[in-house]
Amino acid sequence: MRLFRLIKILVxxxxxxxxxxxxxxxxxxxxxxLICILLFWRRLHQSRGERLRLALEALGPIFVxxxxxxxxxxxxxxxxxxxxxxxxxDKVPHFPYAQVEQxxxxxxxxxxxxxxxxxxQTPVASASVxxxxxxNLPDGHPVAVKILRPNIAEVIEKDLQ
Length: 161
Prior knowledge:
- The chain is α+β, with helices and mostly antiparallel strands.
- Helix content is 52%, strand content 11%.
- It has helices at residues 2-15, 19-22, 29-38, 48-59, 61-71, 79-85, 97-108, 112-115, 152-160, and strands at 118-119, 125-126, 130-136, 142-148.
- A hairpin with a 5-residue loop joins strand 3 (130-136) and strand 4.
- The longest helix is centred in the first third of the chain and has 14 residues, at 2-15.
- The termini are close together.
């Protein structure tokens, strides 16, 4: 499994052109030029910050967390990259409401409409581990409901191995 994960990381790195960032040191420039020749078909029209953010999202929650931490270190990374990575704080693509509904119903052993008087289907925030929805309890009390991403514990455990 580790080999497959390593291959996925390599593929994502090349797909999003992160080799340009990794190999930008002057001693590695010949290797970078060779990769550019071998991957001549690749079109990199996004900024380096956007490509890095998209790659981290594609690699999963541990990598998104790394990007979140990195976004706060403007002393280590250029401002344009930090600005783009800051989008990982609460603008990660959300998972579908159907999955949210399944998670709530499995947790409470009741349909969503019995647990909440009203439940917003669109999340107000979505991050690497969870997303947040506004809702009202049956008595009308407003609440924010944090829903963990499906199978998040297994995904994190695999990445930490």
